[in-house]
Amino acid sequence: MNKVKSYRLNQGLTQTQLAYKVNVARQTISLIENDKYNPSLNLCKQIAKVLHTDLNSLFGGN
Amino acid sequence: MNKVKSYRLNQGLTQTQLAYKVNVARQTISLIENDKYNPSLNLCKQIAKVLHTDLNSLFGGN
DNA sequence: CTTTTTTGTCAATTATATATGGCAAAAAAT
DNA sequence: ATTTTTTGCCATATATAATTGACAAAAAAG
């Protein structure tokens, strides 16, 4: 559903590296990428910033 | 910071009406509009849909 | 093939988003 | 000026996001 994994791989980052950059646990990134739950807005914004994109591009789809 | 209040008023909705449409308590809308906390992504998406806009427009700023 | 890295998932715990009820102040309506 | 509606805020309670540690499987590297 979301495009976090796609953008993360484009930046050459591992889940662990992305998690470190946005100050969450690696598991949190894994769960988000698999649409296993519902992250907070602030976390979404941080991820968008680190992946050089925006909320609509990462989470805008259905 | 965010533009929920602005878009809500444009649609002629009260906090209570918006809360009802997105299935949360009125207080939740009040807190979000005043940037008093950090809503979930799903709630942000529902609000965007009801207000006929998108994540970037509502929450994209800083 | 063997070793190392990366990822998915589980269980238990902690932090915090959201709910509920209520009250006062501001705004709008009469 | 008075009444009604709308909003901000304060408690307490509940649901769930996020943490931590650990293990196995898949993928990548050697």
UniProtKB/TrEMBL annotation, chains A, B:
Keywords, in A-Z order: DNA-binding
GO molecular function, one term: DNA binding
PROSITE patterns, per database record: HTH_CROC1 (PS50943)
Residue ranges of domain HTH cro/C1-type in the record: 4-58
InterPro entries with a match to the protein in the record: Cro/C1-type_HTH, Lambda_DNA-bd_dom_sf
The UniProt record lists the keyword DNA-binding: yes
Transmembrane segments: none
UniProt-listed Pfam families: HTH_3
Name of this protein: Helix-turn-helix transcriptional regulator
Species assigned in the record: Ligilactobacillus ubinensis
